[in-house]
Amino acid sequence: NAIRDWVQKGEVSVYVLGTQDVRRAQDPSQEDALAAATFHMGAYLHQQGHREDAQRYFSEAARLRPHRWNYRRQIWNLTPGTDVRAEMQAAREAPGAPPFTPPLFMEGLPE
């Protein structure tokens, strides 16, 4: 329904974000930036052959932003012998696990 409204009404659709909203959505929080930098340091260390050190950075990135499934998936992919599918399924089913896909709330749409 939101897409239909946007197609029919274009930029005046209630579902079109304003410039400020788009900018705000693109700006990472300090926690997001720290988690990303931490993860990239882990990737660099892993690439340089320092796998134990890299694992500490990967774990910290996942701790900082547990809802960022990409961090976890990359960690599992870089750990030899890991069954990524099994790890992902177990993590998704764990009590208190964040949703794999965040819920989408839009005005006028059923929840």
Separation of the first and last Cα atoms: 13 Å
Shape: elongated
Mind summarizing the main beta sheet?
none
Instruction: Please give the radius of gyration in angstroms.
Output: 19 Å
Structural class: mainly alpha
Counting DSSP E segments of at least 2 residues, the number of strands comes to 0
Give the number of helices: 6
Helix and strand pattern: HHHHHH
Task: Tell me what portion of residues adopts beta-strand conformation.
Answer: under 5%
Helical percentage: 55-70%
Mean pLDDT over the full residue set:
86
> Unreliable segments (pLDDT under 50, ≥5 consecutive)?
none
Question: What keywords describe this structure?
Answer:
single chain, 111 residues, mainly alpha
Task: Describe the protein.
The protein is mostly helical and 111 residues long. Helices cover 60% and strands 0% of the residues. It is built from six helices and no strands. The protein has helices at residues 2-9, 19-26, 30-47, 51-64, 69-77, 84-93.
Offer a concise description of the structure.
This protein has 111 residues and is an all-alpha fold. It has helices at 2-9, 19-26, 30-47, 51-64, 69-77, 84-93.
Task: Please specify the SSE layout and strand pairing.
Layout: H1 2-9, H2 19-26, H3 30-47, H4 51-64, H5 69-77, H6 84-93
Helix pairs in contact: 3-4, 4-5
